[in-house]
């Protein structure tokens, strides 16, 4: 068999292998739409219309995707239920953690999105103190002090900061972004957390939305059709974030901060798309306008005139900004491979503590 196909099959299988955490796994996640399992739509009170969610869960869930997100695949690996959004008042299950990620969130609040990373951390602290308070009063099935201590804290934010950074003082904004991620980890650590998993930001200049709106001429593009300046901006953020993770690893006694290079995973997926069985790596499945990007700012995925690719097609981009379930599955399997992490340890490392 073709060696590329073999590795693709092995990768796909990795997602379905289950960790040995047993029932101990607890995750608290912070971030933006890349890991929002419904917080934004719960918070603002709306439903995401089909075809959004057409593969999973076939009904509005607030995930900006055709199906599952990377965090959903990571929960499947841990054999725990998908993370309920902190703001979802009905049907939620917080026995194995909670999701504070909100679509559109950045490390700083802005007019249409107050759910910045520091606010998400405050929500977590409130969640923790209420859990402990209610447990002391005799409530059952809530996470206790040990659970909070041994939980994994995952952070995946920065993409929306890049939008802001390119519209303002870039270097200033990147410094603030990285500093806020550092503060978030420090604050959770000060409140007893010790296991952290940080995703860097993906190749911003490869988002079909960005390329279609920002491309002036072909010299703006790299060999794969991505915007060079925007990708360099993402790399600058990641370079600083990586350094901050190293710093925290040596400063915070007994803590582990794993930095995972999502940029390289996603860039490889786009650059080598056909090896992974994908087509048209820079075209949105769901949008308007057709090739090359199928993106139109005024007719976005989910609006009445938008059109989606057929359900069996293999796109990387779902709506021009967010990845498809098929791409997310591949990203999750790469994360589980440990190959892109520093230090290079398994995703379920926190269970053995
Ligand atoms: C996954 O969890 C379920 C209970 O939720 C359990 O019955 C099953 O054995 C677990 N699978 C593995 C492989 O641990
Ligand atoms: C950003 O931080 C770096 C140090 O990490 C510093 O050299 C640089 O001057 C800062 N930039 C701004 C605009 O504050
Ligand atoms: C960017 O911000 C830094 C720090 O606040 C400042 O020193 C620098 O002059 C600013 N640059 C521009 C172009 O505004
Ligand atoms: C593209 O932009 C570059 C730099 O802005 C410029 O030097 C070049 O002439 C442009 N090429 C075309 C074909 O317009
Ligand atoms: C680190 O772990 C050791 C061994 O469990 C413990 O004695 C020590 O108090 C811990 N330090 C902090 C800051 O938690
Ligand atoms: C594409 O795949 C090849 C072979 O696995 C690898 O060496 C290369 O780094 C990949 N390209 C990118 C941009 O990741
Ligand atoms: C978006 O679609 C509308 C309606 O067809 C069209 O008028 C407009 O030119 C399109 N915009 C772009 C940038 O293609």
Features of the shown structure:
six-stranded mixed sheet, binds 2-acetamido-2-deoxy-beta-D-glucopyranose, globular, disordered N terminus, two-stranded antiparallel ribbon, 39% helix, 8% strand, Rossmann fold, 353 residues, 8 strands, single chain, alpha/beta
Strand order of the largest sheet: 2-1-3-4-5-8
By CATH, the topology is Rossmann fold
Order of helices and strands: HEHHEHHEHHEHHEHEEHE
Low-confidence stretches: 1-6
Family: Belongs to the 'GDSL' lipolytic enzyme family.
Keywords: Glycoprotein, Hydrolase, Signal
InterPro entries: GDSL, SGNH_hydro_sf, SGNH_plant_lipase-like
GO molecular function: hydrolase activity, acting on ester bonds
Question: Secondary-structure map with pairings?
Answer:
Elements (H helix, E strand, L loop, with lengths): L2 H14 L10 E5 L7 H6 L25 H9 L18 E3 L17 H20 L8 H6 L1 E5 L2 H8 L3 H21 L4 E5 L8 H7 L13 H24 L4 E5 L1 H10 L14 E2 L19 E2 L16 H12 L4 E2 L11
Parallel strand pairs: 1-2, 1-3, 3-4, 4-5
Antiparallel strand pairs: 5-8, 6-7
Helix pairs in contact: 1-11, 3-11, 4-7, 6-7, 7-9, 10-11
The protein binds 2-acetamido-2-deoxy-beta-D-glucopyranose (7 copies).
One 2-acetamido-2-deoxy-beta-D-glucopyranose binds next to loops.
Pfam families: Lipase_GDSL (PF00657)
InterPro entries: GDSL, SGNH_hydro_sf, SGNH_plant_lipase-like
GO molecular function: hydrolase activity, acting on ester bonds
């Amino acid at each position: 068999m073709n060696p590329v196909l073999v590795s693709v099959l092995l990768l796909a299988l990795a997602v379905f292998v289950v960790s040995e955490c047993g029932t101990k796994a607890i995750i608290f996640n912070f971030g933006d739409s890349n890991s929002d399992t419904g917080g934004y739509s719960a918070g603002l009170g709306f439903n995401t219309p089909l075809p959004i969610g057409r593969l999973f869960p076939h009904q509005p869930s607030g995930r900006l995707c055709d199906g599952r997100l990377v965090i959903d695949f990571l929960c499947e690996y841990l054999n725990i239920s998908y993370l309920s959004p902190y703001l979802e008042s009905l049907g939620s299950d917080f026995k194995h953690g909670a999701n504070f990620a909100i679509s559109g969130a950045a490390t700083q609040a802005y007019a249409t999105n107050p759910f910045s990373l520091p606010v998400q951390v405050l929500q977590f602290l409130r969640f923790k103190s209420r859990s402990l308070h209610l447990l002391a009063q005799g409530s059952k099935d809530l996470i206790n002090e040990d659970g909070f201590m041994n939980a994994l804290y995952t952070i995946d934010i920065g993409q929306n900061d890049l939008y802001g950074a390119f519209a303002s003082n870039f270097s200033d904004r990147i410094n603030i972004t990285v500093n806020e991620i550092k503060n978030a980890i420090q604050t959770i650590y000060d409140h007893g957390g010790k296991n952290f998993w940080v995703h860097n930001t993906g190749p911003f200049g490869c988002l079909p939305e960005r390329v279609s709106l920002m491309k002036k001429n072909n010299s703006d593009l790299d060999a794969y059709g991505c915007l060079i300046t925007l990708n360099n901006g993402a790399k600058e953020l990641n370079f600083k974030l990586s350094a901050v993770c190293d710093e925290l690893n040596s400063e915070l006694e007994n803590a582990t901060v794993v930095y995972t290079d999502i940029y390289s995973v996603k860039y490889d997926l786009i650059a080598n798309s056909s090896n992974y069985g994908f087509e048209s790596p820079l075209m949105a499945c769901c949008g308007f306008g057709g090739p090359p990007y199928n993106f139109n700012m005024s007719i976005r995925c989910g609006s009445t005139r938008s059109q989606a690719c057929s359900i069996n097609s293999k796109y990387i981009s779902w709506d021009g900004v967010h990845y498809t379930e098929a791409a997310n599955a591949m990203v999750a399997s790469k994360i589980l491979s440990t190959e892109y992490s520093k230090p290079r340890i398994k995703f379920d490392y926190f269970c053995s503590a």
